[in-house]
Amino acid sequence: MSVPSLEKQLGIEVYASPSPGVGGKIRQFPEDFVVEEILVDGSQARISPVEAKQPERKGRYLICVLVKRDWDTLLAVKKVAERLRVRPKHIQIAGIKDAHALTAQHISIRHAGPDQVSRIKIKDITLHPLRFSQEMVFSHLLFGNRFRVLIRSISHAPSFTEQRVEKVRSEVSRLGGVPNFFGHQRFGTVRPITHLVGRFITQSNWKEAALTFLAQPSLYEHPESREARQQLRNTRNFREGLRLFPRYLRYERLMLTHLTKRSKDFVGAFRKLPLKLRRIFIQAYQSFLFNRSLSERVKRGISIDEVQVGDYVVSLDDHGIPKDESALVTSQSLSRMKKGLKGGLMRVAIPLLGFKQKPSGGKQGEIEHDIIETENVAQRNFHVNSMPEISTPGRLRAILAPPIDLFVEHPTKDTTDSCKLEMQVNFTFHRGSYATVLLREFMKPRDLIEAGF
Predict the structure, then answer these.
(1) What does each C-alpha distance from 302 to 122, 269, 299, 361 come to in angstroms?
(2) Is 98 in the active site?
(3) Domains of the chain (ranges, CATH numbers)
């Protein structure tokens, strides 16, 4: 089945399910896409949490639930830090949540009390103090996320829609999940350039990295932003760019402010951005290479739910989350690894390229070699000498994402258009897996932007 060209630009070139989807749109409103974070201890951050008693002050960190509507996670944390008058690094999160959505997640704050937090008033952001802890929130405390996603504007009849949904659901179930692609928001669907910036950084081409981030326009972004970027691309006048760039392009304006003073210091301009964002550029390029490798594996007819000689496998913990334990499969260990896979103890994995991570062997290794050669990139390129703090050693990522408690509700009339249907999809994904990767299987969108991805 044909994949939209925009997805191919992100390395996503295949579907797990060969059956047609139902079409439709997501994220017509932020409330259509609800995300609630779950920690490994079972606690869930809820959109409407139960009011807690005043927490007893035992621990350095105040744990809160951050509920945000239509906010970028990093910008929301920055705004909260400003209001609390603490440094952003004193607020820690377990994971970045969708921007155009209604989300709830745990955060830890140092140097803040419950009364201080409760008094904060920011439009579309609410903080709910829970407890004090000696441990800050960080990624390994995260189990995953519970999603409730409303698909609107479905044009088919109810029975036909249900038939298509059931066909896709059974195909995904037989496979044991969906390909664990990095989703669209990893790259920016409206302006998918994050991995391109990362590619230039690995080439030590900081000028092109900066110009790509600042001055590569997209047909899908706001006309004001698009025109400002195009003007900057034409003129390379950073002072004029700063005047033209809208206030909401905060990160771009930080870089432009620096470049008006030091027009050739592109490394310095990137240093004006938060460390998490700078790391995302390199990580997005890793993600693109991973997506291409996984797509090519599927295209070559190599199973993603069975292990081959030369594959990596990662062990799973008691929660079903991949651990740091891994092995490269040999002809001698193949039989044992197959049993481990069948028993749900491990999963096949593909490397995220980095300065330490070795490639796969066998047929998967051939795929990785071909892609690395085409991209003209090497492991050493992920050690960024000009900015060592964003260097990445690489790691392994499981290639199959099994949805937990997947339930698709019966379609009903779309409340915004009575001639069409809406349908809610409910599921949980382990940390690191993207909801849109499952939703695309049910929808098979022709136009990602129109479909709300």
Answers:
(1) 50, 44, 8, 14
(2) yes
(3) 5-31+148-175+407-443 (no CATH), 32-143 (3.30.70.3160), 209-273 (1.10.1510.30), 279-398 (3.30.2350.20)
